[in-house]
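> forwarded from #structure-qc
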């Protein structure tokens, strides 16, 4: 059985992030790169579209409280939706809110440079779900095989 490159594995939010996630900032459109010449010519900025689903891509920065490595604690998650997803929770501090994601998938990747490479994941979700619990309410003995986009070591 062969699994093709770029395959997205469905994963439950609680398995990937046992202590939840904290969203930092706002949901922003994921835009395509523009060269200096394109900007000077006044070409409009285009939002990326996911090749597999045909949905618009949005990005959001999150922090995983379960990650022990400080450099891998914060990362971006790509949200796939026709319209901008809106978080279902309120802010606990200015610009920070606990969130839970629905339709979560993980795509395995290799990250790092040179001899310091490690297994990481690129996470995508279809949107936010109503939080059933506050971030960090999972006991210490909870599921601990989670991951961070472009960050988790296997």
């Amino acid at each position: 059985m062969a699994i093709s490159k770029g395959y997205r594995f469905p994963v439950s939010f609680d398995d990937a992030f046992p202590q939840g996630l904290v969203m930092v900032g706002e949901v922003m459109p994921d835009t395509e790169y523009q060269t200096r010449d394109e900007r000077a010519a006044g070409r409009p900025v285009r939002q990326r579209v996911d090749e597999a689903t045909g949905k618009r891509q949005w990005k959001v920065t999150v922090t995983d409280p379960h990650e022990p490595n400080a450099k891998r604690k914060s990362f971006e998650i790509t949200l796939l939706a026709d319209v901008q997803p809106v978080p279902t929770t309120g802010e606990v501090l200015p610009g920070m809110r606990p969130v839970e994601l629905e339709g979560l998938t993980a795509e395995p990747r290799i990250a790092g440079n040179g001899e310091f490479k490690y297994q990481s994941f690129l996470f995508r979700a279809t949107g936010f779900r109503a939080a059933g619990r506050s971030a960090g309410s999972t006991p210490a003995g909870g599921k601990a095989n989670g991951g961070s986009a472009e960050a988790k070591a296997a």
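QC bot note: The CA atoms of residues 31 and 47 lie 4 Å apart. The first strand starts at residue 9 and ends at 10.
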